[in-house]
Structure prediction request, 398 residues.
Amino acid sequence: MSANETPDGGRRRPVVALLVVAILFPLAWSVVARVFAQGGRDPDTLPVDPPPGTAACVEEKSTMRFRHMDLLKEMRIDAVRDGNRGAVDPVTGKRTDITFSECARCHASREQFCDRCHRAVNLEPDCFGCHFYPP
Amino acid sequence: MDRRDFLTAAGGTALAVGAWGYGVKLLTTRLKPREGMAEDKRRRKWGMIIDLTKCADGCDACMTACRAENNVALFSEEGHERWDIHWIRKVKIQSKASAEAPEETVILLCNHCEHPPCAQVCPVQATFQREDGIVLVDHHRCIGCRYCVISCPYNARLFNWRELESVEGQEDDSWPNKEYPKRSHGVAESCHLCAHLLDRDQEPACVRACRLAGHDALAVGDLNDNEGENWYGKPRLTDTEHTPKRLREDLGTKPKVFYYGLP
Prediction:
């Protein structure tokens, strides 16, 4: 069925088009604003990298940015439900704990590592009501 | 609808479904596989042995150590005692048979039952029994319905009606142990046998405090291990004259806290 055969003779088409534009406008606007903003996202809202020379993180930086919440949830289930709270390296004898303090060994500041980005995307995760993270 | 429209619509739908499925899979795949509890740890059955004949009157070392380790809330203001949380406590009991019956002190805590009523009634499976027998609350999941508080026959569960807050300008008493989390307002809690320490092959706080106080009344260990190797404290494992008692054995909850010298 082509557009000329609609019951109202195609008079609704501009209305539908306007509706589609109105729905997609916020999405498009965010992309346009991002492209035209100078230097992309405000660097003050991104997590600060740990000082050079610190050990590698458990995952790639991009994975951690995108999915750290999933990883935290998985580690939480492992620790609370299965009691897997870390392991001792058989060679070095060094203990790796599954705690926030382990994150804080490299990412020493909560404000620079967690809060500024959460604030920028308007998120208030509940972690730090109960868990301690150095401010 | 002609053939061209049909093929376009079918192809578009297939593409959309495929992309959706791929996206869902990408977002729900675990980053780290769930391993479950290690085989040697799974075989354990953690329990406690309390020797009341060694427990000293007026000593509160275990209770203080528990508060310091697990950030158990104690409200210091006058008249706010009813909000206090106790994971381990000492109570004085007296037989109703005669008025001259001597007062006895008993240590009460979560009994880590083999058939825990608290875990059975929990509607969201926040309270659960670990494979090694420890009964604990996943506070991330608890919705604060207090079914477990009501169901516990030992009154070991308490509810966080209030949250302990630090007072500005004072030393932060609300959070003595920064390595262990606090609990937020609106969740139930009880003794977890210091599972976070047992998992790291360390001694539970109360056992350590009792040992350091020189009483050795408390012992935590693997009930499957009769040799005393996998135990913290000095347990009375082989006592031919006395049998250890458990609280309210008639209920069939099969507690894993055993008492010597229970009146």
Q: What stands out?
A: Chain A is about 50% helix and 5% strand.
